[in-house]
């Protein structure tokens, strides 16, 4: 009798940017650091620290603020949330691209910047990340941390996020409206749908975020068996909450002309404006997905920072 063949060892069936590896037996391996090397540019003008907002789940966030000797005595700072991107599958507050962007946000906005981590897929499929985003917002509102208690103006809270973080910002707007948040900044929000938009259909394969990776993120992050028309991904999909009744705070939607997500975000903003919601688009011609975290010191990133600063300084009014 021939000996039984040895079982085939598990092999990689999905991979995301050299960080996330999903194996054929369902196991998941993550690397703590991103697959790129970026130096952190910290000139000391901003101080930062980590805090835990959900001990049971081991979830933390990073707080940034201008050094106290750079501020007037007793100054209260607007609070600016930044939820990182990564297709709900990768990313971290501790990654250098996130660190660099948040350092610049705190310095240029003169704000207390809050950068939360959230549970990632496929181990924790959506809506886990949305629930974590809400938990971080409520934790800051409780002023449990000394930095928040002594520095934050909790009447001036702004919520932003890029890519998947922008999607979190949308869902927080639906959940909280304008009661607790002065304004939202959705940076190239990661929305989906089964019908391709033009920018999706024409996206080149060598784009930073291309169709294959875009679809892979949704496949790994949505509930098992769901399509990209699931209401978590598609704000106008079947089963999505009606947005007409939502009390949206002023919302900036930032898009890039070369981004696969361009058309879907522009359509999102247009539909909300047609409902009478205070939503404006800022279109950065020629820019790719995530240009502001890829190089926070580029000319386009500086322009974006000026747009965000005007929005925050005016308490959510548009130019």
Automatic annotation (TrEMBL):
<dbReference type="InterPro" id="IPR029058">
    <property type="entry name" value="AB_hydrolase_fold"/>
</dbReference>
<dbReference type="InterPro" id="IPR033140">
    <property type="entry name" value="Lipase_GDXG_put_SER_AS"/>
</dbReference>
<feature type="domain" description="Alpha/beta hydrolase fold-3">
    <location>
        <begin position="81"/>
        <end position="292"/>
    </location>
</feature>
<feature type="active site">
    <location>
        <position position="163"/>
    </location>
</feature>
<dbReference type="Pfam" id="PF07859">
    <property type="entry name" value="Abhydrolase_3"/>
</dbReference>
<protein>
    <recommendedName>
        <fullName>Alpha/beta hydrolase fold-3 domain-containing protein</fullName>
    </recommendedName>
</protein>
<dbReference type="InterPro" id="IPR013094">
    <property type="entry name" value="AB_hydrolase_3"/>
</dbReference>
<dbReference type="InterPro" id="IPR050466">
    <property type="entry name" value="Carboxylest/Gibb_receptor"/>
</dbReference>
């Amino acid at each position: 009798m021939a000996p039984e063949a040895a079982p085939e060892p598990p092999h990689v069936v999905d991979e995301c940017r050299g960080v996330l590896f999903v194996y054929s037996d369902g196991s998941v391996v993550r690397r703590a650091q991103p697959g790129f090397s970026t130096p952190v540019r910290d000139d000391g003008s901003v101080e930062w620290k980590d805090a835990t907002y959900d001990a049971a789940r081991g979830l933390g966030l990073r707080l940034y603020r201008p050094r106290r000797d750079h501020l007037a005595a007793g100054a209260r700072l607007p609070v600016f949330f930044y939820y990182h991107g990564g297709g709900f599958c990768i990313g971290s507050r501790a990654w250098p691209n996130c660190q660099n962007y948040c350092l610049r946000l705190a310095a240029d906005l003169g704000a207390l910047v809050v950068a939360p981590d959230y549970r990632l897929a496929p181990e924790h499929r959506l809506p886990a990340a949305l629930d974590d985003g809400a938990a971080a917002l409520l934790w800051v509102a409780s002023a449990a941390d000394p930095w928040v208690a002594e520095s934050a103006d909790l009447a001036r809270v702004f919520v932003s996020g890029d890519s998947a973080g922008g999607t979190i910002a949308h869902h927080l707007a639906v959940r909280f409206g304008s009661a607790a948040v002065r304004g939202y900044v959705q940076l190239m929000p990661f929305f989906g749908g089964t019908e391709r938009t033009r920018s999706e259909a024409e996206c080149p394969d060598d784009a930073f975020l291309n169709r294959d990776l875009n679809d892979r993120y949704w496949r790994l992050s949505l509930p098992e068996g769901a399509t990209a028309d699931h209401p978590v991904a598609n704000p106008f999909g079947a089963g999505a909450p009606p947005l007409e009744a939502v009390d949206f705070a002023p919302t900036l939607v930032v898009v890039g002309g070369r981004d696969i997500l361009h058309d879907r975000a522009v359509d999102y903003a247009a539909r909300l404006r047609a409902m009478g919601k205070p939503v404006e688009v800022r279109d950065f011609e020629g820019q790719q997905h995530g240009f502001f975290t890829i190089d926070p010191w580029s000319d386009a990133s500086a322009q974006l920072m000026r747009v965000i600063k005007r929005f925050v300084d005016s308490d959510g009014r548009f130019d």
